[in-house]
UniProtKB/TrEMBL annotation:
Pfam families (alphabetical): DUF1223
PANTHER family: LIPOPROTEIN LIPID ATTACHMENT SITE-LIKE PROTEIN, PUTATIVE (DUF1223)-RELATED (PTHR36057:SF1), PTHR36057
Annotated spans, Disordered: 208-227
The protein, known as: DUF1223 domain-containing protein
SUPFAM superfamilies attached to this UniProt entry: Thioredoxin-like
Organism: Thioclava sediminum
Domain of life: Bacteria
């Protein structure tokens, strides 16, 4: 899966979120596809392990209820009633069920070609960073600024459940996703971020859509690696 040379480097990387579980027999091919994406400079590939398949006999040690809740929020925003694994969400806009490599490449290329809505600049190093945000055009909807920490790689021997007997290597395993600021998207702002530990970090600026049950995740407007 090679990046398009005409668009590489012109835009922020495209965020691809994989919702997966060690307890799901359909997930290993999607986990392998995400593993390929981690080698691309034009993509930020993140694996969010859900916990709703833990009852099948194997508790996913990376699964967290907040990741299940995020996936369900995407479904609600899209008017869907059901969530699935494996599912890939591209730039917060498009959902793919299963490892659809051709459709995924098309979606990434489409997002790479899209007109940027937010200018994101990250400066700093070590444990302190400055995140400067400026709207290209004033946003109509506020945005959430989120910090993602992840584990680059882990190999797991799955002993029970639907994948019993498999040894799977997972990449870019999200360990936390926290909101660090709300931004109105109208005036430039600079945020300070202090990091604990040496886990890699990503900042995501994402449209926040109001609903009666709280904000729902919308399109990802900008993203960048803190390194």
């Amino acid at each position: 899966m090679a990046p398009d040379p005409d668009t590489e480097g012109e835009h922020d990387p495209v965020v691809v979120e994989l919702y997966t579980s060690q307890g799901c027999s359909s997930c290993p091919p999607a986990d392998a596809l995400l593993k390929e994406l981690t080698d691309r400079d034009d993509v930020i590939a993140l694996a969010l392990h859900v916990d709703y398949w833990d009852y099948l006999g194997w508790k996913d040690p990376f699964g967290k209820p907040e990741f299940s809740a995020r996936q369900k929020s995407y479904a609600i925003a899209a008017g869907e009633r059901t969530v699935y694994t494996p599912q890939m969400i591209i730039a917060g806009r498009e959902a793919l069920i299963g490892p659809q490599e051709a459709a995924l490449d098309t979606a990434i290329a489409r997002e790479s070609d899209a007109h940027p809505e937010v200018d994101l600049k990250i400066t700093g190093e070590g444990d302190h960073y400055e995140i400067a945000l400026s709207p290209v055009d004033k946003l109509e909807t506020p945005a959430m600024v989120q910090l993602v920490r992840y584990k680059p790689s882990a190999t797991v021997d799955i002993l029970r459940g639907e994948n019993a007997g498999r040894t799977v290597t997972y990449k870019n395993i999200v360990t936390s996703l926290t909101g660090i600021a709300e931004w109105d998207g109208r005036a430039p702002v600079t945020l300070s971020v202090d990091l604990d530990g040496d886990a890699p970090a990503v900042v995501i600026v994402q449209e926040s859509r109001p609903s009666k049950n709280g904000p729902l995740p919308g399109p990802i407007l900008a993203a960048g690696q803190l390194d």
